[in-house]
Write a structure and sequence with these properties.
Structural class: alpha+beta
Shape: globular
Strand content: 5-15%
Order of helices and strands: HEHEH
Number of strands: 2
Largest sheet: 2 strands, parallel
Radius of gyration: 12 Å
Number of helices: 3
Strand order of the largest sheet: 1-2
Helix content: 25-40%
């Protein structure tokens, strides 16, 4: 859930599997479900969500709670 993309995308992807999603951060997009499912993957997996919307703060807090904020 970083706010800026890594400078070297190839190096970032080489560190493990990358799950990406792009969309408006709203309830109907179910990014919370994505994060909950992602939290069960191995630690070397990375999640990148790109978007803005009314759910941003809630999703950021959920990422912290699930322990996926820095993945």
């Amino acid at each position: 859930c970083d706010t800026a993309p890594p400078a070297d995308i190839a190096a970032f992807c080489a560190r493990g599997h990358v799950v990406g999603a792009v969309g408006r951060l709203s309830t109907e997009k179910a990014f919370d479900v994505l994060m909950q499912a992602f939290s069960t993957l191995p630690r070397e997996s990375h999640l990148v969500i790109l978007g803005e919307g009314p759910e941003r703060e809630r999703l950021d807090a959920l990422a912290q709670t699930l322990g996926v904020r820095d993945r």
